[in-house]
């Protein structure tokens, strides 16, 4: 909403606090309160305004009453205007397997005149699309606490089990009766959720059939106000944080939010002196603590930071990958941000014992990744987007965990680049010149790969990731954390870095995790802003010298912290609300660390190096004035810093009244000292910010092939379609069809293009003209007698650390060429979205490493759920070749116990 009046700058405390208890949004600011404005806005947009002591967003106001007290009248609008058209679909075993992608049931949840009791759907047959055509009157919304009984006819599925032993899902997969565990409902309105992978953790969404007649039912309460979390009306500091550095400025809001972050930082420490990830997130998470340590916690709480990092190391001395897609490592590989955090701790503390402890952990982990995840063809590293670990939120729905392993993401590669830079620094520090050279070379390869394969000159920022199967293509979406890290770590330099900051899209409430958003996916990583990402974006803006970007980031971090009275995990990009995302937490470690980083690393510009602390301040003109940071500990010294002026250029910097050479405090300094900084008060050269409306890309096409023609249902909002052949643009049409050649092998994909040229994800690769053969693996090892179904031959082979750790597999081809080799497998050791039970093997030809074979989890107990591993490109000579599939030390997963799968056959497909 555009402000037509300047919002109030001063309110009487009594009238303000009474407003904090209002349950509905209040009217816009009145003329009387507008007249009370004491000062102009520090930063202002159509969405909200930032003042010296307050934040104003429409009717909502947050204010700093002092350096240790904040009040807010914010109330989430999440329940206010909910559409009564409820979309939902059913799910067997927590999978999206009932209806085609993009097709949902709908029910209009509006009671008819005189109706009592819960609303009720008609009896819907599993797999039969139902649409309620009841018209919805204007200004009609879902009533709070609407009870809805959902009725499902599972008799067609049960009949298929009885007749065939399996049911064929909408995706063409065979679901065997032995694997049938649960039926859930997913949907658009809480408590419904589109998070299929986590339905197994929401028993309230399971349908039951107590009388065994095949009719399953569940009654839900929709739009329950109790489900929408609200914040308190006041925060007042209750924990003593005087032992932390104390910050004072001319901006009461900034001071109060700094003290809020300090208090929450102290609350984030568990009794065992490790970090708690968030109020709702217990335990130590590798990526969360690492990003937090880099932002601020190495400086603020180095001992806790050390303890937390060491908690994330296996007994064998490898960094633990957080649980995630397909059983985590190596589907997810962003664990290497641990190395960057460990180096930050060393730079802050100078602790040589720490350096010697972490160096072998880092190098051993990198060695594993070189074998398991480094792609020699592109120079990049495979694995899921760093921190974006919820498949449907940032990937097309067709991508399985193994496809995510095969992808090569911007943020994850920036992390691996910097991990190798860090390893090289450590090696130099420890006198290992050969290791330093090796890691420098690995870093250089990753940097080259990023700039060769992910850089988009026409857009001025990097693409999101390479993805596909046998042929990779680039997703052109912006990925905010990756864009920021590419600037911070020096993957992008000079004018290129400035382009990234000035051209990466930002929406009115901040820089979204990805842009454009994905249609039909609720906010969490999609359609959301994460304050810690915004903090890295602020650091990138400062490094690139972009004042407008830095000021916008500060506002985007201060607004939610002030209005919500806590450092939340995330908020909706569309409206800035905390309650509209799928999951959220208060007192979030990396969010509060990001707020602190604005003071330490942006305004005061502290940059820690191996042997010194360098000051490179960046103070936007809107925040000019005098500020102090007292009691700041740097190794054996205690610094009291005073700074005045604005800009990013030093006029003078003195230590105890004497000029400080290089603006650098030496690591050898001891005792308490006075540091004074005067900035030139000259603004940097003006630079742009790519402010855009929050837009959504078209839905991903679902493509079929028959009679030399690709066809797909028309995609809503699409104005054209692009054809990709083997990952390369091969055609364009406005009709939902393409004629293709059925001769030589090719993998085809279709991209829908919508308004403003926004592109959908590419459709699932569809092979045409493939020449393939299968090698049945029960011929090379004793076949298993376990009672699983769906294998293609006469049996299958179990592999684990103890059983068949090496398989020798003969393959014979009629002509030499490039082939794709993969394996049909089952892994029922765990769910798709958590636990570390991905099986990993190495494929070799003699001593030659051909690549890593990844066998991710496919569902708890789902041993009849068969799929294919990642394909490995292998050049085979004419005739017979012996391949070996082996379990090697680098193939250890994080749990060290379960590395098991069932192998059906090896598939060999001729590519060239």
From TrEMBL:
Domain of life (superkingdom): Bacteria
Signal sequence, renumbered to the chain: 1-19
PROSITE patterns linked: CBM6, PROKAR_LIPOPROTEIN
Alphabetized InterPro entries for the sequence: Bac_rhamnosid6H (IPR035396), CBM6 (IPR005084)
Signal recorded as keyword: yes
Domain CBM6: residue ranges: 773-909
Keyword set, alphabetical order: Signal
Protein name as it appears in the record: Glycogen debranching protein
Source organism (scientific name): Hymenobacter profundi
């Amino acid at each position: 909403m555009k402000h037509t009046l300047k919002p109030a700058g001063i309110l009487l405390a009594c009238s303000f606090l009474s407003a904090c208890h209002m349950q509905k949004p209040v009217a816009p600011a009145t003329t009387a309160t507008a007249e009370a404005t004491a000062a102009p806005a520090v930063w202002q947009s159509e969405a909200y305004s930032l003042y010296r002591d307050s934040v104003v967003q429409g009717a909502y106001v947050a204010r700093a009453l002092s350096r240790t007290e904040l009040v807010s009248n914010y109330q989430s609008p999440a329940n206010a205007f909910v559409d009564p058209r409820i979309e939902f679909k059913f799910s067997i075993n927590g999978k999206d397997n009932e209806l085609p992608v993009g097709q949902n049931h709908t029910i209009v949840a509006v009671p008819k005149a005189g109706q009592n009791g819960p609303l009720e759907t008609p009896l819907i047959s599993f797999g039969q699309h139902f649409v309620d055509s009841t018209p919805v009157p204007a200004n009609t919304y879902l009533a709070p606490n609407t009870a809805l009984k959902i009725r499902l006819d599972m008799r067609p599925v049960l009949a298929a089990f009885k007749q065939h032993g399996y049911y064929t899902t909408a995706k063409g997969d065979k679901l065997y009766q032995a694997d049938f565990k649960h039926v859930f409902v997913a949907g658009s309105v809480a408590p419904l959720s589109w998070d299929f992978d986590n339905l197994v953790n929401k028993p309230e969404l399971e349908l039951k059939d107590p009388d065994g007649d095949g009719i399953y039912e569940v009654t839900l309460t929709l739009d329950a106000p109790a489900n929408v979390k609200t914040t308190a009306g006041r925060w007042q500091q209750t924990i003593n944080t005087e032992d932390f550095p104390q910050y004072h400025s001319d901006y009461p809001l900034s001071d109060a939010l700094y003290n809020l972050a300090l208090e929450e930082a102290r609350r984030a420490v568990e009794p065992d002196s490790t970090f708690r990830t968030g109020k709702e997130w217990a335990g130590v998470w590798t990526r969360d603590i690492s990003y937090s340590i880099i932002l601020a916690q190495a400086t603020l709480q180095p001992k806790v930071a050390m303890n937390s990092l060491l908690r994330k190391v296996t007994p064998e001395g490898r960094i633990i990958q957080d649980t995630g897609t397909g059983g985590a490592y190596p589907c997810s590989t962003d664990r290497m941000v641990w190395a960057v955090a460990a180096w930050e701790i060393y730079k802050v503390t100078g602790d040589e014992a720490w350096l010697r402890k972490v160096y072998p952990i880092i190098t051993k982990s990198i060695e594993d990744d070189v074998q398991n995840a480094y792609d020699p063809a592109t120079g990049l590293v495979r694995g899921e987007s760093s921190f974006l670990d919820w498949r449907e939120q940032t990937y097309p729905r067709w991508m399985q965990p193994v496809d995510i392993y095969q992808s090569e993401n911007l943020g994850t590669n920036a992390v691996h680049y910097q991990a190798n830079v860090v390893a090289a620094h450590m090696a130099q520090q420890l006198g290992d010149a050969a290791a330093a050279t090796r890691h420098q070379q690995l870093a250089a390869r990753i940097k080259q790969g990023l700039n060769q394969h992910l850089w988009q000159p026409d857009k001025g920022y990097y693409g999101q990731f390479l993805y596909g199967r046998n042929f990779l293509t680039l997703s052109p979406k912006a990925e905010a954390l990756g864009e920021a890290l590419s600037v911070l770590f020096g993957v992008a330099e000079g004018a290129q870095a400035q382009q990234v900051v000035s051209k990466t899209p930002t929406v009115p409430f901040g820089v979204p995790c990805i842009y454009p958003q994905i249609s039909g996916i609720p906010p969490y990583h999609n359609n959301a802003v994460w304050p810690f990402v915004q903090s890295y974006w602020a650091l990138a803006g400062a490094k690139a010298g972009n004042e407008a970007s830095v000021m916008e980031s500060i506002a985007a971090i201060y607004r939610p912290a002030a209005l919500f009275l806590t450092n939340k995990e995330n908020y909706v990009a569309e409206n800035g609300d905390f309650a509209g995302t799928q999951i959220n937490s208060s007192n979030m470690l990396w969010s509060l660390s990001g707020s602190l980083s604005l003071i330490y690393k942006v305004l005061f510009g502290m940059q820690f190096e191996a042997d010194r602390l360098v000051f490179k301040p960046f103070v936007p003109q809107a925040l000019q004035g005098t500020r102090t940071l007292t009691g700041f500990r740097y190794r054996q010294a205690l610094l009291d810093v005073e700074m005045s002026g604005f800009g990013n250029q030093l006029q003078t910097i003195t230590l105890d009244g004497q000029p400080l050479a290089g603006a650098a405090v030496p690591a050898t300094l001891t005792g308490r000292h006075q540091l004074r900084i005067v900035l030139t008060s000259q603004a940097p050269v003006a630079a742009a910010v790519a402010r855009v409306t929050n837009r959504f890309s078209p839905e991903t096409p679902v493509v079929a092939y028959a009679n030399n023609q690709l066809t797909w249902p028309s995609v809503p909002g699409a104005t054209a379609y692009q054809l990709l052949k083997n990952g390369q643009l091969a055609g364009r049409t406005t009709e939902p069809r393409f004629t293709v050649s059925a001769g030589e092998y090719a993998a085809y994909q279709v991209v829908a293009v919508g308004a403003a040229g926004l592109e959908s994800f590419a459709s699932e690769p569809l092979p045409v003209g493939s020449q393939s053969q299968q090698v049945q693996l029960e011929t090379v090892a004793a076949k298993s007698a376990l009672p699983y179904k769906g294998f293609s031959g006469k049996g299958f082979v179990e592999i684990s650390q103890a059983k068949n750790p090496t398989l020798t597999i003969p393959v014979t081809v009629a002509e030499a060429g490039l082939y794709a080799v993969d394996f049909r497998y089952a892994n029922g050791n765990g769910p798709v979205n958590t636990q570390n039970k991905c099986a990993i093997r190495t494929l070799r030809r003699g001593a030659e490493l051909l690549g890593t074979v990844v066998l991710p989890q496919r569902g708890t107990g789902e041993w009849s759920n068969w799929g294919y591993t990642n394909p490995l490109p292998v050049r085979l000579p004419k005739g017979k070749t012996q391949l070996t599939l082996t379990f090697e030390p680098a193939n250890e997963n994080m749990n060290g116990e379960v590395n098991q799968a069932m192998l059906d056959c090896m598939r060999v497909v001729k590519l060239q």
